[in-house]
Description:
alpha+beta; Cytochrome Bc1 Complex, Chain A, domain 1; 47 helices
Amino acid sequence: MRLLRIFWLFTQIVLAFSAKKFKNGKKLDVISRFSSYLAKPIITKLGRTVSEVESSSFMKSKIDGSTYKFMKLQNQMSVFLVSNNDFEYSIITLSIGVGSVMDPEDLPGLVSLVQESLCLGTYRFVDNSNFCNFVISINGEIDMKVYERNSVFTIKVGSQYISTALDRLSDMIRNPSFPEKLFFAKTKEYSGTFESLLNDSEFLFQCVIRDISLDDNIFKRLNVLTDKSIKEAREISEINLLEQVKNFYYQQYSSSIMTLVVASKHTIAKLSNEVVLNFSLVKNLNISNPLPFDLAKIVRHPHLGVVGNAIYVKAHSINELILEFPIDYQEVLWDSSPSSYLEYLLKDNSEKSLSNFLTKKGWILKMEAVTNSHRYSFSSFEIRFLLTFKGIDKIKSIIQTTFIALEHIKSSPVNQEILAEIKQILKYKFDYYFDVSPRQISKQIIDSFDIKGCSPEEVLIAGNLIRNSSLEEISAFLNKISIENLLVFVKLTDFHKDNFGILNKDQGIIPELNVNTPINNNPIIPNRNNNALLASKGQDSDDSQIEKNSYLKQVPELDFMQDQEQEQEQKQEQEQKQEQEQEQEQEQEQEQEQEQEQEQEQEQVQVQVQVQVQKQEQAQEQEKRIEANPSSKMISSKDKDIEFRTCPMFNNKYIVEKISAEFFTQVNSAVSQIHAKSIEFKIRKRNKLLGNTPLLNFSSSASYRIYTPTILKNAVLDYLSAESSSKFKSLHKKIKDNINYPVYSSFIFFNNINHQAPSATFFLRIMLPEPKKLENNKNVLNRPIIDLVHTKSIKELILSLEVLVACINYSARDIIKQMQSIEGAFLISSILKSELGGVPFGIEIKIKGFLGSIFLAIKSLSKKILRLNRIISQEKFEEIKQSIQNKVKSENIHRSSSEVSRLFLKSIFEEQKTSILSLEIDYSSITFEQILELSSLLCNNGSLEGALLGNANPVQAYTILNQFTSGIRNKSGKNNQVSSKLSPIKNSIQTWKVLDPLCCRITTNYYYLNKISLNNSLNSNSLLYVPFSYFNSQSVAFQVVFEYIFTIFNEKLSLSGAEIEFFPNVNEALHIGLAIKLSGLDNVSVLSEKVLDIFYNLITFIKNIQKEIFDQAKNKILLNEDLGFELGSYESRLLFQITSRISIFNVLREIKPSLKKLDFETFINTCNLILSSQKFLIATQQDLESSKWEELQNYIPSGFVSIEDLDQVTSSGVCKFIRIPIRLIDA
């Protein structure tokens, strides 16, 4: 009996080590059925899981249809299973918790060598090829990487090979044989890898970082990649390299620090069985991973030793400037708010952003701000600039400008609203743009679970959503981004001696801004008597300049104005007291200035000579050292010597320059000069509170405190409790009684603490209630505007608003004159544009001046609006309508035919049809009753939003904000209260009306004959628009290649008078298409035929293009060679043409990968789709009689259906439109 038990135990052990082969009866002639029976007990017992998490517990994206499961095996191995029928291939990812920080000091790179040695063979497959060759033999891919704290195998195979791949992988991890012959053959292969990678600028860039980090062991894999380094390691350590590899494997490779992810189309049950069968017997050494924070204390930041240096690197295809700020590792820096906060502010796409300023200067093509966190070891914040050729000589200016922008951000209080906005953006991105490919999901799981230490339920969401961070954490993060922590990388394609030392080539940003400052065109120079008007005209000048220039360019102009104010006041006082003494002082000052200028010139010459001598001496020393030791470089400075050990083939590939103290002083001087003169920029124009409101007009030179309705209410109550004056006792009691009136929740007060005079700017919008209830594609108005008896259609509503504004302006003409007499402003305009921002129709009021004048103006205005029927007679009403009609006709005379065609084309896709109204306006049908009815509706039920900008105490602000609304509400006869929360300003989730690409398969084409005579001298015009796709990375990639090949077509064929454009820019929506525009011909029939001929010739030419030419064009685009534009500039062009949306960043990020994937067959199929797409033909001709229009229709190409009314296309259902949810970043 004892012998039987021993035999049974021996059988179980054998089956445990080769369970699968025994199971199939392939060893020791064991019968298949018997072996399967014996295998079940041990596999079942060893394969029991400690814990499991089912799919319902995982945090998934809304577009993720995968099924998930987490298992903890008996040997403590963590396993994630992902099943999705849409996966085209399977991904197996195995992470082992051994990283480069575990390399011995005398054997750097050992962990990497162990990882690759595992693949050389196993005892089970000793006669077969290694694991990598096996994966390639089944048309798979394998990727091996070693990070700071883990080693990762990523295997891509066809789903039919999933069982075989798991079997081979588990065997490789459990039973590696480390064949000596193959091992040393592998080490010799490393020496040849350098040569193939030397032309890769990114690889070289990483090599430089590793080389200059002498005191750190993280990036020392290079040292094991040459025969010389291996030989040195053997001689110095006097050890056997293979034996060291084996010892490391047997001591460190434990199942307890392994995480396996399997993503496949197979079911969870099948994947679970395969994993249990193959990985339950991986050895467990009971090793645990070090905590991330403990690891961070061990690892030294590799860049800290080279802070304060500029490193010039040989680049392959693009010039780039990188400002890097090394940061000690912090948990919150990984996809969390401190880094995201700064990235969000720096990458803002507003007119005044840093990137747009530098782009307009012509110095950069693109800017990126990214945070790199190296596997819980260290972090760095990088600002990357793609430089133009002009920008190479403007590096100092770029760095100074960047630090000025950083100073503005750091000096502003951290905004909790922006933090919430960032979190919403990332949440939306995760919900709708989460990458559900098996490779990305596997990487996300490894990063989240194995590296970040998240729970299994959090793994899919941890990398996309920011964690809550305190304001103190963000402030601490911003403090680390300083010039004392700066490391500069300059990647140059033209790598020669003349390009070194370029940090000091230009004079910096300050002299250039001062040169560009318009001295004599400031509209108002305040003095002692008109300081009260500073907010009125001073802000007017700011507003006009804001639209033209960026905030950085604007600041010196405002500062110069302030300097002029002080100088003029001083001069006036001196002239009144001692005019003669002033003249003498001026003469003396001029003489002193001349002497100082001469001294400065001499000093500059001396400094330049000294700098040149120093550079020559340094160059000579460097050349001598390189000649003496060609395998190393050394550049010395007064402070320290930096020695560089590197492969001999890296010579002359990079140069390191010590950043001078003078350079740091110049940067700090630029920051302090602007910061000292200008007022701190306390508020951002793209703030969520300001999006799509008139508040965008505030001055960038002022410092504001924001009072939201709740804050203002509390401030008013605090002020009243502290104010004990009996003079305003009744007023204060009235305020307390009405403080909770709900309409005031839509107002915001901006207290400008810099202006001492009681001046302000008042904004108010009165909008139609519940604008979303309007049925835009119908000619009738729906609820809740059922009270409008006389106005039946949206067209009448828009025209009535225009006339109402003209009537209010007429009735308030005396108020306008009074405000102008005291150099104030009073403006009333209509709000008709509601396509992008969600702002409904209504009127907008803007008043600037003294607080008292504003109070009286709005009090008088409320009375006049309520008494329009008494102020305006019927005759005057007809006169007002006629003046508007004449103004529109005058504007149309100066419109180009191209603009007219665009207006018609835009109206086809526009919801409110406001574009076409500017051409077809006829005010004759608008009655006075409609105007009075609309005015009453706005007064009684209109949605109100407004703001006050200026220096006022809370009670003053409240009184002014309250004056107008209380007047029109309480005296209009109806006391209907408005909801305290307005949907136009609060709702940030919008929908975009997009042409369904499926309808492009319909062959119905449309034409519209523009019969409006503009009475101008322009010739005929025709435009053809062809929409063919959604806006996504694939369509943009196609368009890029399409546009490039079109240049070949344009060169071969003469296209006189023709212009071909690529959109989006017709309707600023999500369409991609092309438009062909012709002008200069006299006959529309010829024009129509020619535009179609060009279209078909263009598509046919591109369809028939040879595959070689297509591949050549695509490769040139990817390499940015011989192009009229860089790929980055094309992306920037798209960003400007399309409103900022979250989806745009995903699109741009995927353009280059989509270009790589775009094959010739897809390209041709897309061209065929364009040929069958719907086309919109618009023809215009000057002064054509109606009889000739009828004759002209005979010449319209066959297959085109006439559009008599633009609503015919959208409302009849012929063209299908869908609504896509979008997220406006700045809304």
